[in-house]
Amino acid sequence: MAxxxxxxxxxxxxxxxxxxxxxxxxxLRFNHKVxxxxxxxxxxxxxxxxxxxxxKEYYSNYWAGSGLVKLNIKAxxxxxxxxxxxxxxxxxxxIIESIQGHELVIxxxxxxxxxxxxxxxxxKAGQSSDCFASQYYDITSLINKTGKNRITIRIGAHPGVLSxxxxxxxxxxxxxxxxxxxxxxx
Length: 186
Hints:
Layout: E1 8-10, E2 13-20, E3 32-36, E4 53-55, H1 56-59, E5 81-83, E6 89-97, E7 106-109, E8 116-120, E9 123-128, E10 135-138, E11 148-156, E12 183-185
Antiparallel strand pairs: 1-12, 2-3, 2-6, 4-5, 6-11, 7-10, 7-12, 8-9, 8-11
């Protein structure tokens, strides 16, 4: 019996990206580009007010206090975050060639902040509320064996889109953490 071979397809590089307030409808057009791995605030053209939010943990951090905009709320009554943005989500989009000769195709996202939902060719592949953990999606049945494949990934633009039961955490040197080191195994 031959040993199984795993092929890794690196999906890092330039992705299309767009913003929205609704998390239900995939945008029809993607007017911005961003490098993955990378931060949304590096998109071209840039998004206005992309880093303008407070996580509950950040707002209650003693060391950050002097530089914060004062809100008429107490951190312990804040749901999970406060946003100064008019958006709730960012959508990453990439088209790749078909993947032939596979029995199993797994999409791995090393980390993405504020929740993740994945669509392959317009069909939902799965979702995760994890903010700093790797995520794996079995996309075998959704991948076209010939032609092109569309990968669309939605992430939250700020912690306020998460359920209060989800620990959003804070990464003080990175504001918006995004699909990092995306790979597919087959």
